[in-house]
Amino acid sequence: MKRVYLLDCTLRDGGFVNDWKFGEDCITNIYERLDFAGVDIIEVGYLRDYVTFDINETQFPDTRSIGGVIQPKGDKRSSLVAIIDYGSCALERIGPCEESVLDGIRVTFKREQLAEAIEFCRHIKQRGYFVSLQPVSFMDYTPDDVLRLVHAANALEPFAVCIVDTYGFMNKRDLIRYYSLMDAALDPEIVLGYHSHNNFQLAYSNAIELIEQFTQRDMIIDCSVMGMGKGAGNAPTELIVQYINSNMGGKYDVGQILEIADTYIEKELNKNRWGYSLKYYLAASNYCHHKYVSFLQDKKTLSMRSINEILARIAPDKKTHYDEQYIVQLYREYQEKCIDDAGGLLRLREAIGDKPVLILAPGNSLLTESGKIEAFIRQRRPFIAGIHHLIDRYPLDAVFVSNHKRYSQIASQARKHPVSATVIATSNIDPTTLPVGISLNYSSLLTDDERISDNGTLMFINALVRIGLKEVFLAGFDGFVPSGRNYFDDRWDFESESWKNNQAVKAAVSQLQEKIHLDFLTRSQYEES
After folding, report:
1. Which residues of 499-528 are buried (b: 16+ CB within 10 A; e: fewer)?
2. Measured distance CA(46)–CA(49) in Å, rounded
3. pLDDT per residue as tens digits for the range 112-125
4. What's residue 496's pLDDT?
5. pTM of the model
6. Domains within the chain, CATH numbers bracketed
7. Which member of 46, 132, 203, 317 has the greatest number of CB atoms within 10 A?
């Protein structure tokens, strides 16, 4: 009858959440409670030869140092393993098994590293450890790739080979297809494992599906307490334990797992969240690296629908190998719906006429320095343009919008309060309920620096340069601070880290001053001192 090994990877995969800084007491307590619970295998962390030993962390420079924080007792129930990303720990850092607290070592590797990784694992096995092969990004493997892996594994005779769903792409059919192929070809004494991620909320159900397979082969199921792990997290240990106890005669002590969750992991969850989210769903549904989603979300200009449409354009050979220059290009191409905006520029020039132009960016100084702004409006009667917002306090002549998120916000606001201001939108905007009065070409208004290329205020100033204006007045263009209030209306705050780009915006402002005089009515970090 097959045996199901439960492998808890909280101290390793959970380290992606807290940078492996669990603290000595936490590490010791998690290990001891997992051992008391009867968990079969405990993964204690990473072996990385480029780190220095820290008793509070679960990444270790060599096998010997692990004993400096984890000290198993003679009656321990669990086997201990650490993991190595192939190429990140030299063989000389791996001492003999009899001189280490470890029983085994798992080695991750990319598909193209198979031959070298197998040879590396052979040396580890010779040092007395049981070895598990952890081929990452398994959804990239073709049937021929799987058979090459199995052939190499059969020759090596490791303890286990694991199906690693690195990006959480797998549904039940994917998992069973790979498992069936490997189960048929892998030597029967080699254990077959599964490491999940929860992008599709399937980590637990996929694990149960695998456990229920009619096979005599032993298997390893990876899990972590409360699913703590990279990105969307893993299958929760407490759920797997409960299932095995209830349905397979397991004797795991779920109370010990709950103590870990209550004492340590739930507090960590409140500080650094992991688990299912739209970000990881979008990555998995488009079979791509989650960093592509992060890049597009960090732009703070795109709706989720638009992000999804861009991800769908990623070429197959780029999907799981993040390429920032490539996603920058896709983002630009998506936004660049080029139009002939000569008519739009003419209408903008006619709307302004001989009036001075006052730009109201959405900074908090629109409230804190309202007296200056109101006095200027009374005295000069300017053409007033709001950037990405409508504000009742001031009589807007126009509102400029250059990204989908802000357009949706303004459209929602306009459903309750009719908009008399002319909507000036860039060509990347697809109008819905809010009519656009003037359309301008998106790509013609961009700033050269990619970090701030589509900053709305800078784009509108570029539009004014294009129609020949020589002076513009600015309010609410405050600059960002890491904490504190950045916007006059909290609804406009998307929790970005725009403050990191203050110097880039200031440099762009300095360059614009050579083309158009910028007068700041309110205090700004971008004003030249």
Report:
1. eebeebbbebbeebeeebebebbbebbbbe
2. 10
3. 999 999 999 999 99
4. 57
5. 0.75
6. 4-271 (3.20.20.70), 278-335 (no CATH), 342-520 (no CATH)
7. 203
